[in-house]
């Protein structure tokens, strides 16, 4: 079963704007996929629907073979999501934010603790683990969201513009981390970006979205050879 399958996905916002015009996408297990497109193309809308943050107008979504309309809770347990907006309490401590998320997913704190510490360490946040999250920089907050998304050991990680607002050195570190996660754990990764260089450096496959349509779905290498 693919990590993600989308069929005929359509979104018409309340104001009548058609942000997605019936897109299809299949992401096999273990793949590293970029969803590339300019601002306003529909990337966040697509990710939002997959994570049920945005209601779809029509179409079907399966996460790890689970139809999100039939068992959203099970689908959600098999995916980690890093949205664009920071959405954690600024007054909670870093480590607790990660552990509480495991709790919501039904994983006991004791079981999640090692994973939480591992990812906080890997993402350079271990020394901040007992700090309230409002004391973190923007890049640290972004990395905190990645640690939180991974604590329940999802097979699929989806990140919406993960390097937005992250400075160039930290961007490199974050990209290395994701590459290693994909290689060593076999975690399927899908990220959105509007930087071709980022897709090129990191992702084996790229789906280009423009004005609500997927206009290209190919190997990153063959895309570059066309340019
Ligand atoms: P992005 O950074 O993905 O381009 P924007 O900055 O355009 O997103 O939008 C920020 C927020 O405003 C998002 O939650 C988005 O759903 C919402 N939004 C964007 N465009 C509109 C619009 N035309 N009408 C209402 N809400 C919008
Ligand atoms: P991207 O993530 O590729 O920048 P988005 O999915 O955020 O694109 O937005 C796609 C289009 O949908 C944009 O034209 C945006 O203005 C519009 N849009 C986003 N959210 C809303 C909303 N809540 N209401 C109306 N239009 C929206």
UniProtKB/TrEMBL annotation:
Keyword terms of this UniProt record? ATP-binding, Nucleotide-binding, Transport
Entry's Gene Ontology molecular function annotations:
ATP binding; ATP hydrolysis activity
Q: Which domain of life is it from?
A: Bacteria
Q: Which residues form the ABC transporter domain?
A: 4-227
Its protein name is: ATP-binding cassette domain-containing protein
Q: Which organism is it from?
A: Litorivicinus lipolyticus
Q: What is the lineage of its organism?
A: Bacteria, Pseudomonadati, Pseudomonadota, Gammaproteobacteria, Oceanospirillales
Give from-to of the shown chain within the full protein: 7 to 233 of 315
